[in-house]
Design goal:
The structure is a homodimer. By secondary structure, chain A is α+β, with helices and mostly antiparallel strands. Chain A folds into two domains: about 240 residues, Zn peptidases (Aminopeptidase); about 110 residues, Alpha-Beta Plaits, CATH 3.30.70.360. In chain A, about 30% of the residues lie in helices and about 25% in strands. Chain A is built from ten helices and 19 strands. An eight-stranded mixed beta sheet of chain A has the order 1-2-6-3-7-18-8-17, sandwiched between helices. The longest helix of chain A is centred in the N-terminal third of the chain and has 17 residues. At the A-B interface, helix 6, strand 13, strand 14 and strand 15 of A face helix 6, strand 13, strand 14 and strand 15 of B. Chains A, B: One of its GO terms (biological process) is diaminopimelate biosynthetic process. Chains A, B: Keywords: Amino-acid biosynthesis, Cobalt, Diaminopimelate biosynthesis, Hydrolase, Lysine biosynthesis, Metal-binding, Zinc. Chains A, B: It holds the Pfam family Peptidase_M20.
Chain lengths: ~375, ~375
């Protein structure tokens, strides 16, 4: 049947009703698919909804949307979240079972985005100026990351005293994040037939001290801003061997150093080189950590208002991008990280309410 | 043009003239392609040539041919060689350059086969009874080996006091051969995200003592029948790792033990298990070594008659099959082992003459 009066569905921007509950708004966002690289429709919906709020100024860069209050407050804080999801795994549309909302992106992290939008709509006169950042391509390779693009092209848009990234933490405050560095350590020798091994030089045997040093390594657990971090230096791969009757002439050990945010990437590299002194060490990639910055006034007030006991964040997250801009940042969001990227991904509706309530308390106290 | 009087080339058996020089006979054999599995034509040619010699009785099993003198001598010796070659590498037909005969199989080991045939034809009344063994499929997997098949189906055909395998040794006597054993040594742990390494248990780190023991291992060099062997215990492969951010839960080290022939395979295995005491050791394959047996009268006479200083054979060869039958055996042949399996494979014509001359001296002294 022809419906000439219907709007062209593909070009229509889905409407977001920011007066519904955080749980309902999360479901609405989840039902707008936005796998990394396909965030245009959801970014349009967020932009249109924010432009209806007269207390905000709104900017757009690709599929990132930035909205700001401009009240001249003494402090400015960022509430940030990404709009994209991992690929859908037969888990759309969303559905509710008791207190749980199921579906792709419920936990990671459209529940956090819903809380951002609810705060944007319902806290028109916060005690601190707020910058809301919604960005694209967090779930894919770092060079495509929307927050990284904003930091490069519009660092002024991100300027703030403190940032909260609403990635799922089960509504707990996780401060900063550890850095990560990967390095290849290679030993070399000389091939020979294994029947005449003494004519060769076994590169696998020469890797013994590398593994010994790893096995003996005592990881540090520094306390920073009251949070205990926990470093780790580990082999994540080893390979060597030419054939079952050949003395191998090369052995590769790939190590991953996870380091507390009181080390810079340069200091982390120097440490790894010191541990493996005498060996050929090539750093293949690294990412800086992020200091929790909990001694900043905005951060201290945040911790007090949210009534949680902060813990250290061990995994690397986008808070490190804020840290690189000189902005202390924490993770605080309603999602359950244990269910991120899973087929049965879900989020607690009450955690969404709780997160919104605590942020509201902080921004209105 | 039609040639109705020509013989059907494909069914004709090439004629071998055993009165030519060893070099000429080698070239003739080389020009009959006999890649492993395709030895029928050359085996037919050898069988037909041997059946013309009235002092020999001839047996056939598949593409193996066995010829024997039956003079009732006090001792019986075997002269053995394989008829097959590795795949042809654009190196046929054979050609001569100075003293060198080039082509696939010249060194490994049709020059040795030519010497066997020359002795068969020209020493009708040897001082020791001789069993000539020509066999198939030496260059492929062990289960197809023609000598292994004969040892299984007709051990009586191989019965002897001493055996000479005419594999290329540059006309030097190489005694016995070392055994070989491969084992997998595995460590296990517990996976975890590398950002929280303390929740896991790194299997690669646990392999440190395996590599330490290998690096510290002091190989024995036992002297047997005056020959110095040289053992070796080596890692030939190592692998471990799940992903660049995961603590690995398994690491595999494959070791190869090359052992002197005074150890049985069981003793070799016990030794490896002792070295890696406390680890999970699985023996995946092994082959027994072969004692040189140079104290046997036939062997002592052989060494004296050939005027060479015997050395130990480190690599595994088919002499071990004779050893398994209780027959001491040595390698002694005209080929140059350094050119076996190579495109520019070749053999010295004078080494062929020299080998034949020394064997004749031994069998006619």
């Amino acid at each position: 049947m022809s419906r000439p009066d219907a709007p062209a569905a593909e070009s229509a921007v889905p409407e977001l009703d920011l007066s519904t509950t955080g749980g309902q708004l999360t479901a609405r966002l989840v039902d707008i698919p936005s796998v990394s690289g396909s965030e245009q429709v959801i970014a349009d919906a967020v932009e249109v909804a924010l432009r209806k709020l007269p207390h905000l100024t709104v900017e757009r860069d690709g599929n990132a949307v930035i909205a700001r209050t401009n009240l001249g407050r003494a402090e400015r804080v960022v509430l940030a979240g990404h709009l994209d999801t991992v690929p859908i795994a037969d888990n759309l549309p969303s559905h509710v079972e008791g207190d749980l909302l199921y579906g792709c992106g419920t936990s990671d992290m459209k529940s956090g985005v819903a809380v951002q939008l609810r705060i944007a709509a319902t806290v028109p006169e916060p005690n601190r100026d707020i910058t809301f950042v919604f960005y694209d391509c967090e779930e894919v390779e770092a060079r495509r990351n929307g927050l990284g693009r904003l930091a490069k092209h519009h660092p002024d848009w991100l300027a703030a005293d403190f940032a909260v990234l609403l990635e799922g933490t089960n509504a707990q405050v996780e401060g900063g994040c550890q850095g990560t560095l990967r390095a290849e350590i290679r030993t070399t020798g000389q091939r020979a037939h294994s029947a005449r091994a003494w004519l060769g030089d076994n590169a696998i045997h020469k890797a013994a001290p590398i593994l010994e040093r790893l096995a003996a390594y005592e990881a540090e657990r520094p306390v920073i801003d009251g949070l205990e971090y926990h470093e780790g230096l580990n082999a994540v791969r080893i390979e060597g061997g030419v054939a079952n009757n050949v003395i191998p002439d090369e052995c590769l050990v790939v190590v991953n150093f996870r380091y507390a945010p009181n080390r810079s990437p340069e200091q982390a590299e120097a440490h790894v080189r010191e541990v493996f002194d005498g060996f050929d060490v090539v750093v293949t990639d690294f990412a800086a950590g992020a200091l929790p910055g909990l001694s900043q006034p905005a951060a201290a007030a945040f911790v007090e208002a949210t009534s949680t006991t902060p813990t250290a964040k061990f995994g690397w997250t986008d808070v490190a991008r804020f840290s690189a801009l000189g902005i202390p940042a924490v993770n605080f969001g309603p999602g359950d990280p244990n269910y991120a990227h899973k087929r049965d991904e879900h989020c607690s509706l009450s955690a969404i309410e709780e997160t919104e309530k605590r942020l509201r308390a902080w921004l209105q106290s």
